[in-house]
Amino acid sequence: MFLCRGDINRTSCSNCIHAATLSVAETCNSHKGASIFYDECIVQYSNVSFFTLVEDAPAIRRYSPSSYLGSSDFFNQTLPGKIYELILRAFSSSLSSPIPYFAEDREHVTQLEGSYDLEALVQCSPDLDPRNCTECLRLAVEDFFECCSHARLAQIIFPKCLVMYNVSALQPSLGVING
């Protein structure tokens, strides 16, 4: 099975799958199953059927070591609100979208301390049913907020789903000077 991120083109997807497949063949050829996670794709194989299942596998965590120095409102309200909005959109896109179980958004956010651009995406493997997709993303979000608190960018990747966000550098608000 392979899964490419919904925001990349076919050529990039094909190149990623090719590289991941070669890597799996070189490093895991004696194993009965393996998953390899690249930035743009996931390749997985097993001698046991894993389709339609949310697997109990450890997450791959990638996040920036530098902290985002904005307000706590961002991590307490803005970011969770955006992620949960995308999960609902991914769930509802399962039947109508050319890329099922995928949702992304880019938004310019202005708060008291300044403004920033927020990019976020969520995605599930299309072999999952809506309930299992939601469950996988829920597990990813739990892991996300436990491991990557206050990171400027983060990715949580499970074999069947992923959650990502990236926050641009904070641009201070310009104050109004009365003169």
UniProtKB/TrEMBL annotation:
The lineage of its organism: Eukaryota, Viridiplantae, Streptophyta, Embryophyta, Tracheophyta. Keywords: Repeat, Signal. It comes from the Eukaryota. Coiled coil: none annotated. InterPro entries: GNK2 (IPR002902), GNK2_sf (IPR038408). Gene3D superfamilies: Gnk2 domain, C-X8-C-X2-C motif. Residues 1-50, 56-170 form the Gnk2-homologous domain. CDD domains: Gnk2-like. Transmembrane segments: none annotated. Pfam families: Stress-antifung. This is Gnk2-homologous domain-containing protein.
